Amino acid sequence: MNATPVSRPTPLPVLDTSDPCWHRIGVWGDRSCPELRKVTHCHNCPVFAAAGRRFLDAPPPPGYPAEWTERLAIPEDGVAGGLLGVLVFRLAEEWFAVPVGVLVEVTHPRAPHRVPHRGGLLAGLVNIRGELHLCVRLDLLLGIDLPAQPREGNPRLIVVRRDLDGWVFLADDVDQVHRVPERELVPAPPTLSRAASRLTRGVFSQDGRAVGLLDEDRLFQALRERVR
Fold first, then answer.
1. Residue 121 maps to which CATH number?
2. Could you tell me if 196 and 210 are in contact, meaning their C-beta atoms sit under 8 angstroms apart?
3. 214, 101 contact by CB (below 8 A)
4. Hey, is 138 helix, strand or coil?
5. CA–CA separation, 65 vs 17, rounded Å?
């Protein structure tokens, strides 16, 4: 079935903040704001929250509600055509992807705080936006051998969550979000480790490389069973 062409939606108005304090003295500025000692991050500050409320309370552009009502009334198959939204990343020499439905954010790496008497898959705890997250070794879970000399990349921490189950893991490189036709998924090749094969929904080709799409159900279950 051919996908129904859909025009780009009307963008919401940009938040009008003249000289916002978070860009001058907050975490995106020189960090001289005395309130940071109490709130840790601007996201936890009442001033930042009030600016966000003013943005959300602003009236939408003319016709915006009607336009989105029409767009959301289109059947999902007509818009997506069986496309899967996934974030592609690298562990050592292997490329994987997670569905965007469980993706919370991608952030800069930071050293995890070790948990006493715990190791293995659990790398420790990391603080992200003032909230502690369990950081896991996804390479160990998937049976990926790390090279002695890792190649250059764009290492990032990836935060995933499903219901109340949240995890953080370090990726050696992060590509971007892609939309992959579901029909292009093929079974995992024999070269993929047994552990990775069990947690992989299928493999697709992206820019000349094979990418294993992780199954979120099996991934979260395996983490719960082996870490907690």
1. 2.40.50.180
2. no
3. no
4. helix
5. 24
Q: Which amino acid is at 33?
A: C
pLDDT of residue 88: 95
In one letter, which amino acid is 224? Answer: R
Q: How far is CA 78 from the centre of its chain?
A: 26
Q: Say yes or no: 68 and 88 in one domain.
A: no
Cβ distance 103 to 158 under 8 Å? yes
DSSP label at residue 172: S
Q: How many CB atoms lie within 10 A of CB 213?
A: 21
Q: Look at the pTM and tell me if it is higher than 0.85.
A: no
Same domain? For 68 and 114 the reply is no
Angle, CA of 52, 54 and 59, to the nearest 5°: 120
Rg of the chain over Cα atoms, rounded to whole angstroms, equals 21
Task: Specify the pLDDT at position 16.
Answer: 43
- What's the average model confidence in pLDDT over 87-100? 93
The answer on pLDDT for 4 being more than 50 is no
Q: What are phi and psi of 8, to 5 degrees?
A: -70, 140
Does the residue 15 lie in any domain? no
Nearest to 154 by CA among 176, 168, 174: 174
Amino acid at site 187:
P
Measure the CA–CA gap between 121 and 137, rounded to whole angstroms. 5
Q: Which residues form the domain of 192?
A: 83-227
Put the strands of the sheet holding 83-91 in their side by side order: 173-181, 83-91, 94-99, 209-214, 200-206
